[in-house]
Amino acid sequence: MRRTKKIVPVAALLALAACAPSTAGQAGQPGGAQAAGKPLPAASVDADFDLDALVAAAKKEGSLLVYDSSGDIEEVATAFTAKYGIAMEGVKSDTPQTAEKMTREHAADNVTIDAAMYEDGGVLMGQLIPQGIVQTWVPADLQDQILPEDRNPLRALSKATVFAYNTKLSPGGCPIKNIWELTEPAWSGKLVMQDPLGKPTVLSFFTQLDAHGNQALEQAYQAKYGEPLKTEEKSAAYEWIKRLAANKPVLTGSDEDISGAVGAPGATDKKIGFMSISKFRNNEDKGYTQAACAGMTPFTGFSYPKYVAVATKSKHPNAAKLYARFIMTEEGVKHEIGEGGISGNSTVQPRVTPAGLADWKGQLFHTDPKALVSDLQNRQVVSDFWRVNHR
């Protein structure tokens, strides 16, 4: 089992992931810099980049602290230290808590976190980068291997959250064939998922569904029930979210809890889990029996980008840059995409390993990185909508 460290959030988290105001875009609001039409600051690229010189400078700094929402960061840290002889500590921390801590450290000029991996691109692009708390640094020698749209901010990888089931309890395949079935009485209380109010990627999924997923949802409804969807809500996405929330999903605070509820050896009740593909490691590590819902209409789950950023006031800036380069290589990112994912480096071969997820491009609803700041601005609206309907 992987050891993980949890960071206890400081009181009054900075309007974090679930609390970005719907008025974002006004002065002083999260997302204001981009909402006002100002582009992100240019990514930093060292014109005279020299890898050997960077390694030497990083070794003089002596250590490195990196926060990540995945416990895989501990394996990355072990590999980084083994390669460079620089003591790296990797700490598992939920993205909202990481953003809050880095914001406070920056304001106090007492920075301990040198770099971080961010799943919440909205907060990163709409708040942390515009406020100068973190910056994007692109390794010059790898720049041509990174698509231009993935350089600012720097996408280290893409991960996915999928609907999963217990293969032992349902040997014929996933008992859910259509996403609208999750809103039916037969599945009331049988979907296990992270609480969207504490999971920025799920809130982003909701807002992105409304932005570019309505047609797929309408077609899925028509295919399931043989008639067009009728709704008084603003869109098919909001109708699905309302019905899902009202169908009493079981909410947890971790994907590990979801995986246990769905795929543990002692499970006797058929449940569907909406969980990170990273938890498919439990099949091998713990003897779980779980697979993604292959063939589910209109999609099996959603993908989302994960970025790497460097603290602007880091006391170990060269070590932080070296880490950013390391995670953009197969040697570094393989620890993050072992159970599936796509590297931000186009030369690194994809690893789509979870059972049931054979086609990353075709089976998933894909987050549009260009809409992440809009997600942040609309987050309060969808959060309130979920609260009203989940009782």
Automatic annotation (TrEMBL):
Entry keyword set: Signal
Highest taxon of the lineage: Bacteria
PROSITE patterns found in the cross-reference section: PROKAR_LIPOPROTEIN
InterPro entries for this protein: SBP
Signal peptide per UniProt: 1-24
This protein's name: ABC transporter substrate-binding protein
